[in-house]
Amino acid sequence: MASLRFPFIFPNPKPPQSPRPFSKFAAAAATAGATAAVIAVSSNDRHRLFLQNALNSFLSSNNSLPLWGSLSLADSGVPVVDSKTGSSFPSILEDSQKLCGIGLRRKCVLGLKNIDVYAYGVYADDDEIKKYLSDKYGKFSEDQFKGNKEFTEDLLENDIHMTVRLQIVYGKLSIRSVRSAFEESVGSRLIKYGGPDNKELLQRFTSQFSDEIKIPRGSVIHLVREKGHVLRTTIDGQEVGSIQSKLLCRSVLDLYVGEESFDKQAKEEIELNMASYLQ
Q1: CA distances in angstroms from 6 to 82, 109, 119, 179, 187, listed in the order given
Q2: What are phi and psi for residue 74, nearest 5 degrees?
Q3: What are phi and psi of 19, to 5 degrees?
Q4: Burial call 182-194: b when 16+ CB within 10 Å, e when fewer
Q5: Contacts of 25 (CB under 8 A, 6+ apart)
Q6: Residues paired with 121 in a beta bridge
Q7: Backbone angles phi, psi at 18, to 5 degrees
Q8: CB count in 10 Å sphere of residue 136
Q9: What is the pLDDT of residues 81-110, one digit of tens each?
Q10: Rounded to an integer, what distance in angstroms lies between the CA atom of residue 58 and that of residue 13?
Q11: What is the band of 53 on the pLDDT scale with cuts at 50, 70, 90?
Q12: Displacement of CA 254 from its chain's centroid (Å)
């Protein structure tokens, strides 16, 4: 059976253009009171969450707030479906972490064909974002958050409870391929943020993905930063490892929230929605 093994190249492909989370179209429709119509217009379920977010904020009686608000669909517990892959993401994890955005990890095989490997959702505890970042960013406008590298750094550095949920969509993916991919991607971040003397830490992390683990299409991997900078890894609900390391937590989250994330558009949406919790 074929599996995703080397040689591969690992690009960060430009995602297709799609509605932005806080579009002018959503604001205009909100003015007209056409909330239901705007949600129906969105052909991409991936962005319904963000359109609803903009509408709720626009209709708020507090006009001093920027054009965003709390993730109301997350609050209501409505699952969000990624129309690219059909993966359904719960809006809330562990009663406190809310879905902030959905991205897609792709690999290019021999430079010829892009394969959708997994969809991923990034979750964060809104109360902890407020606790750590509201004093610094509470009065920022939406425009001040766009491309704000310092805000990205603070999300990665602070001890905020966050989860990255990976949902496998490629049916021939092997656990060895997952291990190899993390050896490269997490390994490069460990070198970037901590220098070359972190091979043992990388091996501790990647050894969690042992050969006997099966990950058919639909499997779910959670990478969770818990309090105290502990990275806990689960596969289909079973814990496979837990490592306390601020460097490792930062390196893993950087793949999905950092400046060179796998899905740049998703990264922007995730950060804007995290920023909305500060208002």
Answers
A1: 28, 9, 21, 12, 16
A2: -65, -40
A3: -60, 140
A4: beebbbbbbeebb
A5: 19, 38
A6: 102, 165
A7: -155, 170
A8: 12
A9: 998 899 999 999 988 899 999 999 998 776
A10: 33
A11: very low
A12: 10
Residue type, 234: T
SS3 category, 18: coil
CB 244 within 8 A of CB 99: no
- CA distances, 158 to each of 81, 225, 247, 263 (Å): 29, 10, 11, 22
Pairing of strands 80-81, 162-168: unpaired
pLDDT tens per residue, range 142-175? 889 988 999 999 999 999 999 999 999 999 999 9
In one-letter notation, the amino acid at residue 278 is L
Contact 234, 219 (CB under 8 A): no
Return the structure tokens found at 197. 């003397």
Tokens for 207, please give them. 């050894």
Residues comprising the chain, all counted: 279
- Per the listing, tokens 């969770």 go with 224
- pLDDT at position 110 is 67
Residues with Cβ < 8 Å from 124, sequence gap 6 or more?
97, 98, 100, 160, 161, 162, 163, 274, 277
Which residue reads 């021939």 in tokens?
172
In the block, residue with structure tokens 């609803």: 52
**Cα of 78 vs its chain's centroid, Å:** 18
